[in-house]
From TrEMBL:
InterPro entries: DUF4559. It comes from the Eukaryota. The lineage of its organism: Eukaryota, Metazoa, Spiralia, Lophotrochozoa, Mollusca. This is Uncharacterized protein. Pfam families: DUF4559.
């Protein structure tokens, strides 16, 4: 959602607000580059022992570090005294050699983390005040990031010579000019920037971010250049603006910690901008919610319609299926009934035929038996008759023989008696 960057009614106040945001875009664009190069610085200065705290390699007194209130009572070396660790002494020497003005901000850094966190080495090149609690390059502000590039001479090898010519702290140094933009914006008395100044700011910052040695091809820097262009042409989203405004507030907080003059006007204007922007974001969110609600309702209505259509189709399909089943069942039953009737008729006919056959067979059998019985009886009668005739003849023969025997016997007896 692109939105005009016209948070303030006054054009010049709006310009100042844009300048605040442009500084933060620039800082964001430089973070990867600075962190990468701080890794290289970490290698250059050598590995610390990891045991020493910053109070150990710093002799007492050291100018700008030790603060002696009374004799032998240094607030920096209050709890820890200098020691003679050669490893850390050497690292400390190397950090100092890479400092353009030979004055690292020792109070900012945690020497026990030098070997594991390049940011702790980077902090030596930050301004003295206001950065001891900043724990990463991302957390640092525009002034901090530009200060590291200006103060650490290693960065001479990573940006074009033109950026550092004439060398800092010459007011003509382009990188000093970049840092000065930050100061001008923070220290403003009236929170107003002319159109010409704003154009100069955009041009200077964009030129730095397009430095040909490394920055031109750094993805984060490329993104920052695009965002600067969007800001300049009023193409930024409200969400981006909100994020930027919070960053601007953080810058303000840091500036106060560092004891910098950050005008009441600047503070008041930033707060006002934040409120206006929040109201705008809120309005935008409400509009978005309303749109979502409308889209949701439309979606729900469509779902309901689609569901109803689907249900109707399913109901019709179910009915069609049921009807088909009923018809099929009916046809099947009819077929079975017809089949059964035919079967029954066949059985009945078969049984009838069977019964007829049985009856005929029985009848034939009985007749046969009757004839057989009759024949048997006739045979028996004939056999009995023949037998009786035979017996009678045999009896007659026997009687005849007996009579003849007796006659012969009597004849013999008579003859014998004579
Ligand atoms: Zn050590
Ligand atoms: Zn001391």
């Amino acid at each position: 959602m692109a939105a005009g960057t016209n948070i303030f009614e006054d054009k010049h106040t709006n310009n100042w607000f844009k300048a605040c945001i442009a500084l933060n875009f620039t800082k964001e664009g430089l973070t990867d580059f600075v962190l990468t190069e701080l890794h290289n610085v970490q290698t250059l200065v050598g590995r610390s022992c990891g045991q020493c705290f910053i109070q150990n390699p710093i002799p007492c007194p050291t100018q700008d570090v030790c603060k002696k209130r009374k004799r032998n009572n240094c607030s920096f070396h209050n709890s820890l005294q200098p020691t003679s660790c050669q490893t850390c002494h050497k690292v400390k020497q190397n950090i100092t050699l890479l400092h353009r003005f030979n004055g690292p901000s020792w109070a900012n850094t945690k020497a026990e983390r030098w070997a594991m966190d390049p940011w702790e080495i980077g902090k030596c090149y930050l301004p003295r005040d206001g950065y001891s609690s900043v724990s990463s390059v991302q957390e640092s502000d525009f002034n901090g990031v530009v200060s590291i590039v200006l103060n650490c001479t290693h960065f001479q090898t990573c940006i074009s010579a033109a950026c550092l010519s004439p060398p800092p702290p010459d007011k003509q140094c382009p990188l000093e000019n970049v840092r000065q933009i930050g100061r001008d914006v923070r220290h403003t008395a009236d929170c107003k920037v002319t159109d010409a100044d704003l154009q100069y700011f955009f041009l200077t910052l964009t030129t730095l971010l397009a430095d040909p040695v490394h920055l031109l091809h750094d993805p984060l820097t490329t993104k920052a250049r695009r965002k600067l262009s969007d800001l300049q042409n009023d193409r930024l989203s409200l969400v981006d603006l909100g994020k930027m405004l919070k960053e601007a507030n953080k810058t303000l907080t840091h500036a106060k910690e560092a004891g910098e003059r950050f005008s009441e006007e600047a503070e008041r204007t930033l707060k006002e901008g934040l409120n206006t922007l929040e109201a705008k974001i809120q309005a935008g969110e409400n509009a978005l919610k309303t749109k979502h609600k409308l889209v949701n309702n439309e979606l729900k209505t469509r779902h309901i319609l689609v569901n109803n259509a689907l249900k109707t189709r399913q109901r019709l399909e179910n009915n069609a299926l049921k009807t088909r089943h009923i018809v099929e069942n009916r046809a099947l039953k009819t077929r079975h009934r017809l089949g059964n009737n035919a079967l029954k008729t066949r059985h009945r006919l078969e049984i009838k035929a069977l019964k007829t056959r049985h009856r005929l067979e029985n009848k034939a059998l009985k007749k046969k038996h009757r004839l057989e019985n009759k024949a048997l009886k006739t045979r028996h009668r004939l056999e009995n008759k023949a037998l009786q005739t035979k017996h009678r003849l045999e009896n007659n023969t026997l009687e005849t023989r007996h009579r003849l025997g007796n006659r012969a016997l009597k004849t013999r007896h008579r003859l014998e008696n004579k």
